[in-house]
Amino acid sequence: MKNITFRQLRSLLAIESHGKIVEAAKALGLTAPAVTLQLKQLEAEAGVQLFERMAHGMYPTEAGRAVLAAAHDIDERVRMLGDEISAFKGVKRGHIIVGAVSTVKYFAKSMFAAFSSEFPDIDLEVIIDRRAETIERLKNRSVDIALVGRPPRDISVRAAIFGEHALVVVGAPGHPLVGRHDISKVEIAGEHFIVRPPGSSTRVFFERFMNEIPGRAAGPNTEIDSIEDIKRAVMADVGLAFLAVHSVAAEVQAGRLAILDVAGLPIRRQWFAVSRTDRAMTPVMTAFQDFLTRQSGKFLPDALPH
Questions:
Q1: What DSSP character marks residue 196?
Q2: N or C of the chain: less Cβ packing under 10 Å?
Q3: What phi, psi does 28 have (nearest 5°)?
Q4: pLDDT value at residue 88
Q5: For 67-81, what is each residue's pLDDT tens digit?
Q6: What average pLDDT does this structure show over 151-180?
Q7: H-helix or E-strand containing 70?
Q8: Alpha-helix runs per DSSP H in 159-275
Q9: What span, in angstroms and rounded, lies between the C-alpha atoms of 214 and 244?
Q10: Alpha carbon of residue 67 to chain centroid
């Protein structure tokens, strides 16, 4: 494998990403025959077939997945090298891919805009998705840093706290429990809840909060994936919800939702910026993490009564 070129590896990665030779060629600014030639040369060098040519696209073989894993490692290292060389020049420029769980969207726009304003030469790419998908991207190295409420336990990560968030119970302003003080866990457990799917942080902490009430975590609940849909259901007085304050701040301030005064709440948690310990922090990653530590407090909404 001594004669493999960067151009061949870039073609291989493009084929994996786009699934078809034609689409990979468009992304690389090459012709389809040129990409096909790169793949054939790489397969000849490896002595094995790297992709299955199927009617619906190109699918990597087992050998292809091994070569692709190496290609991703090489691509990442070259990108890191560019950041390191820039650092030697005293220039903070480069590219960073940040993955974030879906509730980050409630403060992401202004926070990321402020980062880009402070570091105009850093190309910031953000992928907001559910927790499971965000952690998977961290595992497969398709993001540099992940913003989560709970660091993963099945991979080794460094985790930097950059802010706090609180979990509360919210209801429609006209709900009978709104305005009551120190509502007991037993009483709130008798209410119908609109909950997020299993695995989400709010669902995990809802179940932990209710674990003293036998069987309560399992129901009566209505499961809805979208936080926006949950809030609409609560505003329609369909039930109560257990959500993060920053995700309901706008509705609470507008009087469309109310935070209930429940004993044992709010549950205060931290936001973490996590990255893999098996890769070095680039200057760009360090700049982003330092920015979060310094500035995130300006962008985290707070709807708790004071």
A1: P
A2: C
A3: -90, -10
A4: 61
A5: 999 898 888 888 777
A6: 92
A7: helix 62-88
A8: 185-189, 201-209, 227-235, 245-253
A9: 24
A10: 27
Convert the pLDDT of each residue in 103-145 to its tens digit: 888 888 899 999 999 999 889 999 999 888 999 999 988 999 9
Under DSSP, is residue 220 helix (H, G, I), strand (E, B) or coil?
coil
266 upstream amide cis, omega within 30 of 0: yes
Is the predicted pLDDT of residue 170 greater than 90, yes or no? yes
Name the phi and psi angles at 4, rounded to 5: -65, 140
Instruction: Yes or no: say if 3 and 45 are a contact pair by the CB < 8 Å rule.
Output: yes
Q: State how far the Cα of 94 lies from the Cα of 78, in Å rounded to an integer.
A: 12
List the one residue out of 84, 141, 122, 129 whose CA is nearest residue 291: 122
Label residue 306 by pLDDT band (50, 70, 90).
Answer: very low
Q: What Å distances lie between residue 225 and 64, 229, 249, CA to CA?
A: 36, 8, 19
**Best CA proximity match to 148, nearest among 123, 167, 129:** 129
DSSP string, 16-54: HHHSSHHHHHHHHT--HHHHHHHHHHHHHHHTS--EEEE
Model confidence at 171, pLDDT cuts 50, 70, 90, reads very high
- pLDDT (average), residues 290-305: 77
- Quote the pTM value: 0.65
Secondary structure (H, E, C), 236-259: CCCCEEEEEHHHHHHHHHCCCCEE
Whole-angstrom Cα distance, residue 306 to residue 297?
17
